[in-house]
Protein 1
Amino acid sequence: MFFRLSPARRTIFLFSILLLLTSPFIASALPQIATIYRPSLAAICLLILLALELADRVALKRDLEVARDIQKWLLPHAPPSLPGLDIAFTTRPANTVAGDYYDVLSLGDAAGCDPGVLFVIADVAGKGIPAGLLMACFRTRLHTLSRSTGDLADLVATLERGCCDDSYNGCRFTTAFLARYDPATRSLFYVNAGHNPPLLRSSSRPIVELDAGGLPFGMFPDTTYALGQVVVGPGDLLLMYTDGVVEAANEAGDEFGLDRLHAFLRGTAGSAADCQQQLFASIDAFTGRAPQHDDITCLIVQFSG
């Protein structure tokens, strides 16, 4: 605590402590002065220090609330209405400002044709304001790129270079999953940049983990990424999530885990919004009164006929 104080406030703190520690020596020489003035002066100094710190905390809280409101504004407010897609998403921050990001975007194309829809979910390493700032940078860069290209590989390569510029030499990397859906062919092209593998549930095959890709964005310059592809059918459901889902812990320290998430997905039914509500209810039932340590975010897409 002492080293977090400014130099001037350290001086006030040390002066107050010095008054208290030297009281026996002062009392033996000047008992009346020591008894009356020394404790009062020490108390006044400490009260001044406390008042200054409380003022800073109030200002910081106000700034955090403004940052939270801005971050909410940056995230999509309601799922877009797109033919053949049932979409639901939500996030539950662990702190006032979060590092999780999700979005659904229409990709741009120079030729004028419809290149499809982009699903994205990302998680900046760390928590609080630093992660929130980098999340805002990631979001701005992605929105700009999505208007100029419909090619997922080009988008990912450009996004990786930008994240490297903002990563503080790899210390602030970003895990992300980006998927481009082509409604004409029902093909889902995706890149997983070190993110928790999304789960694709289908009635005709076991649950598939979408893990093709590479390292998180921002770790190493010129990183290359493999492009994955799956074909989705009517009724298939894609669950994208951040690590706060599987790492949600109960009071005993046990994590929700990937096995429970698989079991949940096999047993759930209904719309994307129903699945989202059931997932958060399942996490809440598992964690009980244990505090939330990480942001919890999910993006769910159900493909219709």
Note: Helices lie at 7-21, 23-29, 31-74, 128-146, 152-165, 243-246, 257-267, 272-287.
Protein 2
Amino acid sequence: MHRLAIGMVLLLLCGSLPAQESEPDYGWTREMAGGINVNQTSFDNWQQGGESSLAWQLFLNYKFVNDQLKTNWSNTGKMSYGRSKTGDSASRKSVDEIKLESVLTYKLREKIGAFVAGTGESQFAAGYDYASEAEAQVSAFCDPAYFRESAGLTYKPSDILQTRIGAALKQTLTRDYPAPYADDAATTAIEKTRFETGLESVTDLDLKLSTDSQLTSKLELFSNVEGVKEIDVSWDNVLTTKLTKFISVNINVKLFYDSDISARRQLKQALALGLSYTFL
């Protein structure tokens, strides 16, 4: 009987000991997903009217993160390209984007860190102004190209939200199409590069709405030394819902404002349904 009592006491003592916390998983995590979206309609002697059309889009997104006890190195990329054709008109570019970002963070506190970051943006193919009769070319591969380097502080209140703010440098590089991207209309010379210094703020939201739905939002603000009237805004929002293992629907809404390019805000919206595949 006394052996049973001793066993029960030992069991109670063991049960009262604090559970040992598991060590966090450090090292690389890799995510990569790509796919193709296609929309097509065709008419032959269709009395109700309509025009045949074909639209397609390729995309590839990746995120490679190396998380350690005191540092975090995050590398992300977003690439997409698509074209559309309606009726007898020539094929036109509908989507074209290259965006790469690398952020190295040194963890100062649980939610606060110091960072250095670099960002590059451009496009794959030539762009045209279809509003003009001549359909003049207005851009090309890496013309323009945008680069930003920044350093400052990060704040991460949760796993789904993080923001950073710091001093920044911005370069706009052109080759054959300096206006309106880099050229200063106030001077007689034609500038093919533009250099700006100021402050940058970047806020990332990565919210899982359900088992199959994900919302990602990135708000980027850049203010040069000339004042708040010169704030550049880029707000990119993507809602992805997986219908099956390989079929998903994507809604992308992007707001862009840069007074050097246009006095009005620019808005792009795209809805796509197609095949997607997760490589990593």
Note: Residues 2-16 form the longest helix (15 residues).
